Amino acid sequence: MSRLFLLSKALFFRGLQTLGRWCDHYLSPPRPQSVSFRRRIPSTVGGVPGSFDLLFYTPKSYKRSFNLSSKPSPKHPILLNFHGGGFTIGHAADDARWATQVVRSTSAVVVSVNYRLAPVYPYPTAVEDGVSALLYLWKHAEELNLDIFRTAVSGFSSGGNLCFSVTYRLYEELRRLKNEDKLGDVEIGKIMSAVAFYPTVDWTRSRAERRASNPNHKGINLPGFNSMVDQGYLHPPPDMHSPYLSPALAPDHMVKDELPDKLVVMTCWADALLAEGERFRARLKEMGKRVDGYVIEGAIHGWDKFPTFWRGNKERDKAYKSAAESLREFWGEANDGNQSPR
């Protein structure tokens, strides 16, 4: 399949996805919070030059440093979010409802990454853009009034993959910069937690093997979508065992030393990715990590992104609230009702 044909298919599916997001955000009340501001930043990691957008969702208490009076304002935790879409479709605004829940439940600033997409930008560009975003936020933390030592990552599906692969790749990049004496004025923060919703974590298994691993598997069949994802992102064919592609297969020392000690993993009962997600949950626990979250009963892959119109989505709201409450605890914020409703 030619790259041009893959791109045309991706553009078609992106159009469908954009329509779905519009229906979810604008025709399915209550509406999520709008983007507070955005920044376009350069890619500084890897060998593919370019730039991409960061979308900021902020609580009512947020002020940037150049707007501060003489009285300092408390610094805000960071949640760096990665949208789903098989690395080929999707947009940083897709997860506005999740961002809204987090800024309502905590004092955090949610930064959603509009990383560059396949097939124009295949693996590992999305991973490297994620690292570029983290390093940018840490470098500009004083201006943005962010607490780099309370950094967390989150993501959905392929974005859930990026929660882990970006963290691994960050450590590799920091080692390189240190060895080459190029860290400059970048202060090194800490990824203290991660929230992954129905993540893809093992690319060594075929689509058929994944489906067969869950007898309850159900899903929406979009002809040509999976082949577009596989051929678009995995070009040229990479090492499927790489921790930057299959983070659940990383060596023990990487899982133990580089992933945060407090995580949330939400998986779906009818998802082809259920088995690999639950295996990874078990491995993380065996490593001594705390893993909150649960299997969402009856849910298919991407269940939380479908327009609900007048019906609402109680299961989505419950899962988002549960994950946000875990983040609040991980960040050391008391549940004292001081977060301002919007």
Output the keywords:
342 residues, alpha/beta, Rossmann fold, nine-stranded mixed β-sheet, disordered C terminus
What does this structure look like?
This protein has 342 residues and is α/β, with parallel strands linked by helices. It contains ten helices and nine strands. Strands 1, 2, 3, 4, 5, 6, 7, 8 and 9 form a nine-stranded mixed sheet that branches. Helix 9 links the parallel strand 7 (262-268) and strand 8 (290-292). The longest helix is centred in the first third of the chain and has 24 residues, at 3-26.
Number of strands: 9
CATH top level is Alpha Beta
Q: Output the structural class.
A: alpha/beta
- Mean pLDDT metric: 93
End-to-end separation: 48 Å
Nearest-angstrom radius of gyration?
Answer: 19 Å
**What is the correct CATH architecture?**
3-Layer(aba) Sandwich
The CATH homologous superfamily corresponds to Alpha/Beta hydrolase fold, catalytic domain
Approximate strand percentage: 15-25%
Fraction of residues in H or I helices? 25-40%
> Number of helix segments?
10
The secondary-structure element order is HEEEHEHHEHEHHHEHEEH
What is the overall silhouette?
A: globular
Contiguous uncertain segments of 5+ residues: 336-342
Q: The biggest beta sheet, please?
A: 9 strands, mixed
For this structure, the CATH topology is Rossmann fold
Domain unit count: 1
